[in-house]
């Protein structure tokens, strides 16, 4: 990943109200605004939705299913953490470098310099390591990221975190737990199973090679088991619904690839082969000892952790074509899902999109990040923003001025849009680009 300074650039700081000194109040707590503040009101409204706790919503159904499969295996369940966390929780406690791009205002929603919307469930690892009375824990929560706009990306999504702690040297216990994980018949491609440590993915010095091998094996088998349970359930329901697609009779295929996270080493991601594509599902690794030391666990523990993205898996399980649908309030969506059941979503309609381009010269004094454009569009169009794509970019050979063109597709999942309605939204988007980033419309 490339790195940029995590300090807020004046230009990347988007103000949503002219009265910026007004504090932001969320759930009766007040946060003073400062030059880091960039969370728009329409994002704060999502906090109340708690889709993972709605047992009749696809995200809640998936959450339930995973929980059931992990019951009795020694995990304490946490699903009530508030999404506003401190910078310490989200980044410092996990050893994020000061200049990590994840800390920047172009990637993360800040209430102010010290508080932000968590970008991942790992923000709660330390408190769970401290408080959990069982060897493991699971955390489910909504997480928030400033990100691109498309069918599989939404600024809010859900993660399930898992972790497990062992006593150093207790190889027998780890082996016993590995053997207790139910067998699956999935095809696993893992070049690192016997030798988890490679030059790019180092082990930690305080562990023996055998400890690393065993704890990684337990981690990976746990994740494989979970993925298998979920996808087998989806396969069963597809067959029950009468589907005869050939993939339903093929064994599930997964592969492990090396990854990097500041608070784990070695680290991996698991990808699942589903309908002809590798799908990134989960990041994980062996927890850095510093995190365990900070959690008062002493220097004789080893641990693994993983973080699964729930929304994309739910899109596959329920055959949901657009991630925005999870957030719709339309009854035609909600009445299709019931606790404990995985069924295929039946689209109630497909309304055409309306495309609009905006082309402009950038102002040299203002840095315009693609995520800033995404956010301006979302702020004006809400869920009518179907996608925002940078379709053209060039530098004028004489003046050196830079030009960009973004193509916005406005589309509703619930109704037809009129041209005049789109025009007035699009005009506001253009206005915001001019006012905030001093671009010159072409
Ligand atoms: C993490 O968030 C780490 N906290 C995972 C982790 C936990 C690593 C514990 C080590 C130990 P990552 O940014 O890759 O990693 O996100 C994890 C998963 O969330 C991804 O595999 C993906 O399934 C999902 N995800 C990430 N970004 C989005 C998005 N914008 N929309 C939907 N799902 C997403
Ligand atoms: Mg990733």
TrEMBL record:
GO terms for biological process: mitochondrial phenylalanyl-tRNA aminoacylation. Keywords: Aminoacyl-tRNA synthetase, ATP-binding, Ligase, Mitochondrion, Nucleotide-binding, Protein biosynthesis, Transit peptide. One of its GO terms (cellular component) is mitochondrial matrix. The keyword Protein biosynthesis applies. Signal peptide: none annotated. It is an enzyme of class 6 (ligase). Belongs to the class-II aminoacyl-tRNA synthetase family. This is Phenylalanine--tRNA ligase, mitochondrial. It comes from Candida parapsilosis (Yeast).
